[in-house]
Amino acid sequence: MNGRTWTRRQTLQGVAASLLCGTGLRALGSGNRLVLGQSAAFTGPAAQLGIQMNLGARTYFDAVNAAGGIDGRTIELQTLDDGYEPDRCEANTKKLIDAGVFALFGYVGTPTSLMALPLANEARVPFFAPFTGAQGLREPFSRYAFHVRASYFDETAEIVKHVTSLGMGKIAVFYQNDSYGKAGLAGVTRALEARNLKPAALGTVERNTVAVGDAVAAIVKERPDAVVQISAYRSCAAFIREARRAGYGGTFYNVSFVGTKALADELGPDSRGVVVSQVVPYPFAAVSGLSREYLAASRTAGAEPNYSSMEGYLAAKVFCEGLKRMRGGNGAEAFVTALESIDTGFGGFNVSFGPRKHTGSTFVDLTMLAEYGKVRR
């Protein structure tokens, strides 16, 4: 069966299980399983982001469980669908916390994660590896939030550096009209200001829609050299198509949250020349120890490799490293302390945490899409 069908079935199972799992599972020593909770989009215009992040994490957790778990305990990842809507994510998060999950893992999106993090902080539940680079989840510092990926400031700085190094200074921004889009816009503006520049034009789209006509008109008339896109894959694809039809010939840049495979699948042959920044290594060839391990695990699981699932796989791997390091305690506080001791190269991808440093990586790579989903480094 394909990854989409499998994940939706597992999502429904997770919904039922989360309502039945009871309380008291936050302590590592409770029974023979460790229950994690994930609220993410499994339906709607951002569904592929949740599906792939979840699939990569499950690929790693399943391998750990097949080998006997961690200290004899298996890891169970329960999932709830929020459709990339903050209110649904808030309700899901309350359910998961009330059910007694040990940690919240792999949430997808800025507006949803911003809704969930205060609940995690209040309950003192670890909030691990959200699929977002927003600064609002990193500042102010939270003892319970850990980020494996680089920030949107890191990604947009690399994009602006690349564009301006090519002698192009007119950079427009197409962004989702919410906390995610505004976080990306802030990153682009910050990087431009460091070069005494400002955005050449702005255009917005509402979350979970593809109504991009006004944004295309506002941006294309200014004839920018490049457009940085900070939105979900369907709206970004719609913008690219309409802008091309309107005669725009510049280059499109996207941050990693767009989902490289999802964007390429939406665009098909129109994907050629679109640039996407990445926060994990190239997943399609054994260019690093992590890539080699991930490819082998994906083949075993019968899953197609891509950047989003690799991020889920890496997040699960780092999470398990934290579990292995727990000493002298079995609850959330001991786990946080264990995570803060990590300064490790995971197959060539270094993750470094500390007592006041909960962002593990600043790695950013730029890739370009060719036709039909191929990715060039």
| Main sheet specs | 7 strands, mixed
The largest beta-sheet arranges its strands as 7-6-8-9-10-13-14
The name of the CATH superfamily of the largest domain reads Response regulator
- The second-level CATH architecture of the largest domain is 3-Layer(aba) Sandwich
Strand content: 15-25%
CATH-defined fold name of the largest domain: Rossmann fold
Structural class: alpha/beta
> What is the total tally of β strands?
14
Q: Could you say which overall geometry the principal axes of the C-alpha atoms support?
A: globular
Order of helices and strands: HEHEHEHEEHEHEHEHEHEHHHEEEE
Write the layout of secondary structure elements.
Blueprint (H helix, E strand, L loop, with lengths): L2 H18 L12 E8 L6 H20 L7 E8 L4 H14 L3 E3 L4 H14 L3 E2 L16 E2 L5 H14 L5 E6 L2 H15 L8 E4 L7 H8 L5 E5 L2 H13 L5 E4 L5 H8 L7 E4 L10 H13 L5 H18 L7 H8 L3 E4 L2 E4 L12 E5 L5 E2 L1
Parallel strand pairs: 1-2, 1-3, 3-4, 4-5, 6-7, 6-8, 8-9, 9-10
Antiparallel strand pairs: 10-13, 11-12, 13-14
Helix pairs in contact: 1-2, 2-11, 3-4, 5-6, 8-9, 11-12
